[in-house]
Structures are given as structure tokens and as C-alpha cells.
Amino acid sequence: MSEDAILAKVDRIHHAQKKYNIFISTRPVNDLRNQILSNIDDDRPLTGTLCAIKDNIVTKNEATTCASAILKDYQASFNATVVELLENNGSVIIGKANLDEFGMGANNTHSFTGQTLNPMYDDEKSSETLLDKHKYVPGGSSGGSAAAVSAELCDFALGSDTGGSVRLPAAYCGVYGFKPSYGRISRYGVLPYADSLDTVGILARSLRVTRKVYDVLNQSDVKDPSSICDEVRSKISKTVTRLARVEDTEKITIGISKDYLAKGVTPDILVTLELIASKLFESGYTIVPVDIPSLPISIPAYFATAYSEAASNLSRYEGVERGYSNIATDGSEDYKSFISKNKLQGFGNEVQKRLLIGNYNLSSEKFRDNSRKAQAIRDRLRNEFNSIFKMPNALTVTDFENAEIDAMSVDFIIAPISTTKAPKLEDLNNKRNVDPISAYVNDAFLIPSSLTGLPSISVPWHSSGSEYPTGLQIIGQYGDDQRVLDFAEKVG
Ligand code: GLN
Q1: What does the record give as the active site (predicted)?
Q2: Which of 274, 319, 459, 488 is the most exposed place for a label (fewest CB within 10 A)?
């Protein structure tokens, strides 16, 4: 990249920042310039690429805030494993992308730095301001990451997906959003929302770039106890090879579950799914209905799990050892009121609400009713998915390497990502005032693969007659990430 091209790029980043509020911080121009120039002539896999990192993933060059006032001054002394891998492989970070505070949200409305706007709906890209009629939400919680990719400020971005936060913003912003199997990509240095669900995901405008980044990040990491070890990775690869051999003779089978077509899906989205299914059928794929009866109860299971884990994770931000602190200088405060003041001033409303519910769920009276029940639903859901997929589940089958591949079952499941395309900011706020639950409606499509750790991708899909794309979700068996990407390529 020439000096001029770099400066033009920096200009575009600053212009976009003013208009859409995509970043919480951006790399200083000189650092960016020097890093790009110093990488220019090598042949590492990601040389020449620029990326954005969600601001809940630590970098040692800038603050990591999780979009929360409680962490507004937090500066990590180390890079997350994913950041090390990207930089070692030649990518240059342009900035830390906005999100819903600690990943809690679906529209990027809960950030202490304000709302990110969706660049895809901007009809006058070069103008300085965005008219109200063009203000659409980018989705969340990785809305800044999706917006940065959609506005072509970088080649790819990292987000985190706990219950859909990579896939939903990808669909709203017209880009690919890939959530790999839980444990494939290291979480070391990702500030947790809900550890048993948090998964680093990749947003990009093409599958070629998605794959390149995935290949770099798909590694075991001893620093992350939930990272899949090499032995299991190699068993999975062997099984995928066996599966590919079966596929020579058997057609790929796609499952569609009516349980995914929850109330509230607009006719647009249903028609889009129907079009995709008939296109796949015409191309020779077998389409079969599948039953996942526990899908409707996955929402309470998700919220019981995620809120409880969040309550435990976020308790560390008390303003003594970690997080925002506002101590009275006259020494008049007792410890308890000092801590609660820090938390009330540091956390936003959505986070406070979730912590309250999470702590309630963890209380001794409620633990059995809520938290344990949520675990049971999670197991049930995993068994239901296992009974549908051809490939056995490496986490639950004992002799996984020799386990039978059930040729009558399905390779992938397809489902919508959301009930509608990206909402207008104004409509979203009006609706939320009347019906606060509406903000959670899309989670129904997204959380089943989060609760079960399954690889899922959002593929931008243009149905005829619609100016803007929506997302098609492809879900595969645990560990079957490469084939999910292969299939996305065939469909996209
Ligand atoms: N909408 C979900 C939530 O608010 C998704 C969160 C996520 O994936 N980080 O919990």
C-alpha cells in the first residue's frame, strides 16, 4: 500500500467514525502507517490485511473498555491470543470496535460511547451527516465490528458470539459472520460475558477472507482451559475425512426445522428461506424436515445461564482491585456503599438488570429451579441435535473416531438469523418503549447453536425484489467447521 493509499484509508476511517460511531478507539495515524509499511513485503498469510477488534478483546496498545464506564480506563498489559496470532501473521489492527456493554444486547444500543449506525443503509456515503431516515441499527453486540467491515474500512473484524452477537450484526450489515465451534478459537484475553458460551467469531465480506482468518486462529491454546486440544482436533479431522468419503456416494442432506420458524418471522424472511430451500433442492441437495422440540425453551435456558455466568464474571469489577472507582475523599463512605456506588455509576442499565437477575438465579433458593434446569435443557438440546446430524459429536461419543456415520441423517441445518432485516433506530426505540421483550426476539434463532457450541455462519442473502440482504444461517455438527464453510460457499 502506498503512503497516499494509507492516508486515504485513514481519512475514510475518520469520516466513517464521525458518521457511524464504529470505534471506541482507533490506532494513531503514525502507528498505523508504520505498521502497514513494515509489513508490506512479506508473505505471511494475512499480510496486507487490516482488521478491527471488538473492544472486549484485549490489546496492549490501547484501552479495552467492553463499552462500559466501569472499564473506561482499563489498559491490558498483554495481547489476547487471537490478537497475537493476527499480528504475527501480518494483519494490522485499525481500532477497537464498539459493542453492547460487555456483549449484552442485540442492537448496539447499550454502549457508553453511544450507538453505532449501520453503514449499509447510508444512501449518501460521502456526505458528512446521516439523515434520520438512513439511521438503522447494525445489530449487536458486535455491531462496530460488522459496521467496520460493511463500510469497507478493514478486510475483516473479530467479534464475540455468546448468543448470536457475530451472526446477527453480520446479517444486518450484509456481511458474513462465522461463529466456529466452541473451543476452536482461543478465548484467552477475551473479557468474559458468559464463559461457557463466549466464542470468538469472524466477520468479513467474503468467505475467502473468513477462511484465511479462521485458518490462522483455529489452534489449541494452553492458556485457555476450554480450548480443544490437538488430539481431539485430529480425531475430528479424521472423521470429517470419513464423512467426505461417504458424501461421494450420498447427497448432502439439509434439515429445516419448523421449530426455528418462531412467531414474528416476517413474510419476507419466510419467502427468502423458501427460495433458498428450493434453490438447494434444484441443485440436487436433499431437504428434509427435522424436529428440535427443545428449541422454544432454549431462550429461558440461555438467559438463566448467561445472566448467572455474567453475575459471577462481572463481580470482579468493584472499584477496589478492578474497574471504575469513585471514592469520597473525606473518608466518609463505608466499604459496602463505596462498592455499590461504583457499580451503579460504572455499569449501564441493561448490565445492572442482568446482574440482578443473574445473582437471583444463583441464590440458593433459585439455583435448583433455574440454573440446574437450564443445564438440563442444554443437555437435551445437544442430544436432539446429535440425533439429527450424520456426524457424531466429538464431545459426547466415547469411541468417536470409529463411531458410525448415519447416512440417513442431515449434514447441515438451515434457519433464519432474524425475524426482520435491520430495524430503523427510531422504530426500534418506539417498539421497545411499548414492548421491552421485543429486543430479545431474534435470540430465538441464534442461541440454540450457542448453548450447544455448534459452528454456525450467517451468509448474506439477496432475495429477488429486496434491495438489502438478510442472513441465512447454516449450522453444522460440533467440530464440522470446515464443511460449514464449504457449504456456505456453495450456497452463497
Ligand atoms: N442478544 C444476546 C444477549 O444479549 C447476544 C449476546 C452475545 O452474543 N454477546 O445476550
Answers
A1: 54 (charge relay system), 141 (charge relay system), 165 (acyl-ester intermediate)
A2: 274
